Amino acid sequence: MKLLYVQHVDWKWIPQRPHFLARQMIDLGHQLDVAYIAGWRSSGNVVVDPALALPASPKKLYGLPRWATPVVRAIDARLLEWQLRPMITKDHDAIWVTHPRVFAGLRQIAGLPPIIYDCMDDAEALEPRGKNYVSVVDQQLFKSSRVVISSSPKLDAKAGSRARQGTCRLVVGNGCRGDYPWPVMRNDGTGVRSHDGADRPADQRPTQALFYGTIGGWLDIEVLLALAEAPGVELRLVGPVRTSLPESLAACCHEPMGHTQLLQFAERWADWLVLPFRKDEFSETVDPVKLHEYVGLGHPILAPELEVLRPADRFLAMYRSPAHAVEITTSPALVRASHQERQEYILSRTWAARALEIDLALAEVFSS
């Protein structure tokens, strides 16, 4: 298939679902014309990973910053429409869209090819200041799409209430890189670490807990603050900051790294990998990329008691409160999942495996 593939995440940003799926769809033989909305903030930009390089450079689209007021949103949509209109050709079999903001720039164009909506997040929850506007455009996008791909069952349930009858819907979760040498894929007994203090020097260095990714309002600041201030714990947060933080927590923050460099750092430095999500409706819609990467890294994983994480609970140490999170982190970790279970988990959740699920569904839809 020839796709116009338009993502709302800057191509230079820390690699997200759209980056990986674009590369994998090309590897499966699809022809993609990739475009992205350039970000105004560069704090999350990293050197583009060579493994994600495309046959042709992705096209940069310009929008407006602070997509929150009606006037700005209207101008932003017209600006995107002006840039996208000449990119659409009769050769395109479909347009791949990752966010309502992209569709706002497409919806006034007549004769559009079929829309494939890769719904990776609950867009309304991430845009509280423009929630009503996003909700309207999101509903139009669902109804205009021939295929809706949801990254979690909760998002698919939302699609079920909004998509038109006959729309192809499928749930394709997030994944992890297949080209990275995940420690759990080793068979020499070194791929899974338990936190038992055995590898610590005599001076008893602190337990090292790590979270990497965008540091935003969806994180449980109370849990992170408890870890940052706990005796015997060293917390690091690696990624762009998108929310206000207490001083003691801000001191734990470090600049973003390239994806491969980040995974290597996490493998080498961390005793615990942390999924500090808030217990709320939004978190229940998310299939965290970090969960799959954390499993692959082989370290103990600290996580909240969320239903969306239950399918992976054998890999997790789940906490009930900030104090409980500290207690778990400073105690020996029980490794419940077998080495084989971890390997099977990773092999079934690579981005290549996820793209193949999509490829098979698209072949069925567009051949009928």
Summarize the structure in words:
- By secondary structure, the protein is α/β, with parallel strands linked by helices.
- Helix content is 34%, strand content 16%.
- It has 13 helices and 13 strands.
- A seven-stranded parallel sheet has the order 3-2-1-4-5-6-7, with helices on both faces. Strands 10-9-8-11-12-13 form a six-stranded parallel sheet, with helices on both faces.
- α1 crosses α13, α7 packs across α11 and α10 (289-297) packs across α12 (339-347).
Structural descriptors:
single chain, 368 residues, alpha/beta, seven-stranded parallel β-sheet, 34% helix
Structural class estimated from helices and strands: alpha/beta
Order of helices and strands: EHEEHEHEHHEHEEHEHEHEHEEHHH
Number of alpha- plus pi-helical segments = 13
Strand order of the largest sheet: 3-2-1-4-5-6-7
Average the pLDDT over all residues and give the rounded result.
92
How far apart the termini lie comes to 14 Å
Give the topology.
Elements: E1 2-7, H1 17-27, E2 31-37, E3 59-61, H2 70-84, E4 94-97, H3 100-104, E5 115-119, H4 123-126, H5 131-144, E6 145-150, H6 153-162, E7 168-171, E8 207-212, H7 221-229, E9 233-238, H8 247-250, E10 253-254, H9 259-269, E11 272-274, H10 289-297, E12 301-304, E13 316-319, H11 322-329, H12 339-347, H13 351-367
Parallel strand pairs: 1-2, 1-4, 2-3, 4-5, 5-6, 6-7, 8-9, 8-11, 9-10, 11-12, 12-13
